[in-house]
TrEMBL record:
<dbReference type="InterPro" id="IPR015424">
    <property type="entry name" value="PyrdxlP-dep_Trfase"/>
</dbReference>
<keyword id="KW-0456">Lyase</keyword>
<dbReference type="Pfam" id="PF06838">
    <property type="entry name" value="Met_gamma_lyase"/>
</dbReference>
<dbReference type="InterPro" id="IPR009651">
    <property type="entry name" value="Met_g_lyase_put"/>
</dbReference>
<dbReference type="GO" id="GO:0016829">
    <property type="term" value="F:lyase activity"/>
</dbReference>
<dbReference type="InterPro" id="IPR015421">
    <property type="entry name" value="PyrdxlP-dep_Trfase_major"/>
</dbReference>
<protein>
    <submittedName>
        <fullName>Cystathionine beta-lyase family protein involved in aluminum resistance</fullName>
    </submittedName>
</protein>
């Protein structure tokens, strides 16, 4: 199978010319990569210190049974997460089935009839439409007389501070300010920690009782600080994204003020139980080891996203963000010219996968979305977004979302194969 050629990428159909182009790109990115390595180092030490301060022991990897009362491993995981994210408490459970579930648990536990939820980063991710009531559902927040309002970001991608201030001053029933850090299925810029710090300070200066909640999916360990370091009261995310480090097999997390996390735990189980019960189904070691590796894994994915951005930008494609722009998530959006280009891009990512590389992804009617969606992900953990993947709604403007790669080399290969597929269309 293997030859003496130095171009091992040729096994994947990558030409010497494209490899030379890739090498040139990497040289131009060396300074950016070096800065990312400094962030990785700080976050790695942060996670290590959190585990040491919690006195983590191999005994905490042991499973419990039945109700799971006094599960030392589960409690240790939550202590470590609270340490890492600098919060009073944490809820980290395999029974939070995904990021949407974690977010929904927060919303349903903290908002009561008559309250208003104000999203200040535009409409949240599509899978929350039925949760909120943007799309009708008998169990939505709207069905319980919980109101939803939103303020879109400015065309620049910044918060509309004037509208936010006016809303807070006029509407006394606003219980929660909701923020989505990542771009989701949009071309907007993701929200940096400095930007979040400014808006949190502004909000609290007007109403220090309002709950600031944040969707942190795709954003963990991108910067040296997290949103809960700068004023966010409660936030949630998925363990099969950044913090799981490619090892967590399922789960989600909620971190924040103790009273809010406790209410979320009571929504997840029931008011009389809260955090006291719940098995971890022998996932403790993988959850903790994944967290330990996460700063390094996120660093690899981030470098891959930047490489992909530069590769396509150099060929005159619109990319969001551009390669040297400040980032706050692992997602790279690429504006393509047609449905065919979107499909060929995703086919290449699937073909680059270690799992199911022989499968061909096709657009399909995925629940929770208003158009067909194509998803490419040959991952060790089903649906893992920290592993190399790409997805896109099949609608204009045609935009594909590239993310992940638990090694930089794999992310780089995926970008090159996607570029190669699209180049063949033009030829």
């Amino acid at each position: 199978m293997y030859t003496s050629s130095n171009n091992y990428y040729s096994y994947f159909g990558i030409s010497n010319d494209l490899i030379n182009q890739a090498s040139s790109i990497e040289k131009s990115l060396s300074k950016i990569y070096s800065e990312l390595d400094k962030i990785k180092e700080i976050n790695q030490l942060k996670v290590l210190k959190a585990m040491q301060d919690a006195k983590l022991s191999d005994s905490h990897f042991n499973p419990s049974t039945g109700y799971g009362y006094n599960d030392a491993g589960r409690e240790k995981i939550e202590e470590i997460y609270a340490n890492v994210f600098n919060t009073e408490d944490a809820l980290v459970r395999p029974t939070l089935v995904n990021g949407t579930h974690a977010l929904s648990t927060c919303l349903q536990s903290l908002l009561m009839p008559g309250d208003t939820m104000l999203s200040i980063s535009g409409k949240p991710y599509d899978t929350l439409d039925e949760v909120i009531g943007i799309t009708n559902h008998p169990l939505s927040l709207k069905s319980y007389n919980i109101k939803y309002e939103q303020i879109d970001l400015l065309p620049s991608g910044d918060f509309d501070k004037n509208s936010i201030v006016n809303h807070l001053k006029v509407n006394s029933d606003i219980k929660m300010i909701y923020i989505q850090r990542s771009k989701g299925y949009s071309r907007r810029k993701s929200l940096t920690i400095n930007t979040l710090e400014e808006i949190c300070n502004l909000i609290k200066s007007i109403n220090n009782k309002v709950i600031i909640m944040l969707d942190n999916c795709y954003g963990e360990f991108i910067e040296t600080r997290e949103p809960t370091d700068v004023g966010v009261d409660i936030m949630a995310g998925s363990l099969i994204k950044n913090p799981g480090g490619g090892l967590a097999i399922t789960g989600g997390y909620i971190v924040g003020k103790k009273s809010y996390v406790e209410l979320a735990s009571q929504r997840l189980t029931c008011p009389s139980i809260g955090k006291e019960c719940g098995l971890t189904f022998n996932t403790n070691r993988l959850t903790l080891q994944g967290l330990f590796l996460a700063p390094s894994i996120v660093n690899s994915a981030l470098k891959g996203a930047i490489f992909c951005s530069k590769l396509f930008q150099d060929s005159s494609y619109d990319v969001y963000p551009v390669y040297d722009e400040a980032r706050s998530d692992i997602i790279q959006a690429i504006g393509l010219n047609s449905e065919l280009e979107v499909i060929e891009f995703c086919k290449a990512i699937q073909a680059a996968a270690p799992v199911d590389s022989y499968v061909t992804p096709e657009p399909w009617d995925m629940p929770g979305y208003d158009s067909k969606v194509i998803m490419a992900a040959g991952a060790f953990i089903q649906g893992s977004s920290i592993e190399l993947s790409a997805d896109a709604p099949i609608k204009e403007p045609f935009t594909v979302y590239f993310q992940g790669g638990i090694t930089y080399e794999h992310s780089k290969l995926g970008a090159l194969m996607a570029y190669n597929n699209i180049k063949k269309i033009k030829e």
